[in-house]
Design a protein that fits this description.
The chain is an alpha+beta fold and 366 residues long. It contains 5 helices and 23 strands.
Length: 366
């Protein structure tokens, strides 16, 4: 690949060991990252009844890309840059814009993993029967408790105390997206991951088209003109605030936590904005997410894993606050239990949110 700045023994060894599925990319400081090569595929290859043609993750600024390179590991910040390396305690407690910045600082092509990329990988896993297990029960998998990783706090897996992040890639092969050691690690649990290119704003679902957010010059600020809403009628992209655009609403009225299942709507009937000191939200199992009466969910929502498409993600959960600007994180955390997984989706935080269980992952597109 002409985008490799350094060709060395490390890269050659990694490619030889993985049959070319994993490579090593070097950033503008010469720092290495282990990256999984994801070849281009079509929507119909991974989904039925959700459209045809190249999945939007492989279209950046109108250009089809032959492959994506996704960080094999959750990010560790070194010298102001997001690295994808094994055996690290992943960097957490940073906000959305910081995650964007640590990826963009690496140079052209580098970016925060986008929601479109996450969706493509998740749907590929569902199609191929390789939805990964992971650290969703304090260092172990909640269903297969013999599957464990190495906790960074030194406490035994399964002990429900401490900060139970596991070292990147320290779990077994079933914790990788393809079930092999060459796969993307820790997509299920460990830490939630910020993803770029989509948000909620007052409950309205907004995206940056295709995978244009993979361009590290794409403006993802709160006031960016790149954000587009999705028309409920036909799934076309429209200006934010357009009437009858798609939104995540609550089925029930009120502001108390867990007020009722989230649903897809074209109006906000039940805002869960805080009242009387309450910070409201709603949640549902992702595969149970439904649309309000009279709304047919457009294909783009399924392609971006913002609506179920019969893919079978089990008990993976989603959480919504349909007021203010909310930036998404995905995958679940070390204590999410059965709610963690590739369809797990959380709109709880503003872009300023930060916690010990929230990190990110770098990606690259030439």
């Amino acid at each position: 690949m002409t985008t490799i700045f350094t060709k060395d023994a490390r890269r050659a060894a990694v490619e030889a060991a993985t049959g070319g599925k994993v490579t090593v990319l070097y950033d503008n400081l010469g720092l290495p990252s282990y990256m999984v090569v994801v070849p281009k595929f079509n929507i119909e290859d991974i989904m039925i009844g959700a459209g045809t043609g190249v999945h939007p993750a492989f279209i950046v600024n109108g250009v089809e890309k032959s492959e994506l390179l996704i960080g094999q590991y959750q990010a560790k910040v070194v010298d102001g840059r997001a690295l994808s390396l094994p055996g690290m305690d992943p960097t957490c407690s940073l906000n959305f814009d910081a995650a964007l910045g640590y990826c963009a600082a690496k140079g052209a092509g580098w970016h925060l993993m986008t929601n479109a990329e996450w969706a493509a990988i998740a749907l590929w896993c569902a199609k191929n029967g390789t939805l990964p297990n992971g650290n969703n029960d304090y260092g172990r998998d909640v269903a297969l408790t013999h599957e464990t990783g190495v906790r960074q706090d030194g406490i035994a897996p399964g002990t429900a105390s401490g900060t139970a992040r596991t070292l990147t890639g320290s779990g077994p092969a079933p914790w990788r997206h393809d079930g092999t050691v060459a796969g993307i690690a820790d997509l299920n649990g460990n830490i939630w991951e910020w993803v770029g290119g989509m948000r909620l704003n007052g409950g309205e679902i907004q995206i940056i088209p295709d995978n244009d957010a993979a361009s590290n010059t794409a403006d993802q600020s709160a006031t960016s003109t790149r954000w587009k809403a999705i028309a409920a009628a036909d799934g076309s992209l429209v200006a934010p605030g357009t009437a009858a655009s798609l939104k995540f609403d609550s089925v029930n009225a009120g502001t108390a936590g867990s007020v009722g299942a989230a649903q897809i709507d074209d109006v906000i009937d039940n805002s869960n904005a805080p009242g009387s000191g309450d910070d409201g939200y709603t949640y549902t199992i992702f595969d149970n997410l439904a649309a309000d009466t009279g709304i047919t969910v457009p294909n783009i929502m399924k392609q971006l894993l913002l609506a179920p498409a019969g893919s079978g993600f089990g008990d993976d959960k989603m959480w919504v606050r349909n007021y203010g600007e909310r930036l998404p994180f995905r995958g679940g955390g070390w204590g999410s239990g059965v709610g963690a997984g590739l369809a797990a989706l959380n709109f709880s935080d503003a872009r300023s949110g930060a916690s010990a269980g929230l990190g990110f992952r770098p990606a690259f597109v030439a």
